[in-house]
Amino acid sequence: MKSPYLFTAFICKVAIFISNYILQIMNPKQLEQRFNRLRQNKIFEIFVISIILLSALVIGAKTYDLPQWLLTVLPWLDRCVTLFFLVELCIRFLGEPEKRKFFTQPWNIFDTLIVIVSLIPIEDSELALVGRLIRIFRVMRMISIIPELRLLLNSLIRALPQLGYVVLLMFIIFYIYAAAGSSFFAPINEKLWGDISIAMLTLFRVMTFEDWTDVMYETMEVHPLSWMFYLSFIFLTTFAFLNMVIGIVVNVMENEHAEEEKQKDLEEGVPTISDLHAEIQELKALIKKQHDQ
What we know:
Blueprint: H1 2-25, H2 28-39, H3 42-61, H4 68-94, H5 106-119, H6 128-136, H7 141-145, H8 147-185, H9 190-193, H10 196-207, H11 212-220, H12 227-268, H13 273-292
């Protein structure tokens, strides 16, 4: 039980010692520039991704029946991964030119919380389950490291308000078809169409193509034209709504990508369309002024 506490204390002492040593032999500005180059290095980024994958493999390995020697090695391997995450987070923080803005970014806050909680020795306490869950969430650090994943998740979050209206419209369609199906098909199969809630579950089964033809053929024996009911429902939900959802997400992703490119151009000093337009207006005004003179 003392081992995790000793390990955490050792990490803190080593981190303080290394920080003091580096600050003594190197200019803080020079240190910031070196750390900034390191965190932007592709090889370092790939190495961080590899460690995150290793962390995921360690978590997955604990779910199997393993030999005793491996059960002894895995906790130490997990602590080494935690130590690396702490070092990597310090590199990102020290390499940030504007350190006050570091914790204004949600993913930096998420990474910091994950690393801090991982350092807390709770393996042998009542909060051991919480510690395991936190370590599972370390896999999500892939999103903060890989920009493409971050862009995809941000796009999905931005699309939620628009997707809410699509879900509302889908619920209306479900409700109408469930009411109709319960009215017509309840005498045929009480288990599938007995009430509107059960009918909605049956329609969800139809929408996901889970043996939906068995449901259709059963009702067609009594109502031969009931195939129109199922095909129209599948067309409205599975095909039409799926394309609507894809269209919304793709549109939001394009907007997110355009905003990211615009922000990148601003940081690099590349003139935007509005800047060029303003310069053209200034040139027109200058030419007109000279022409009037």
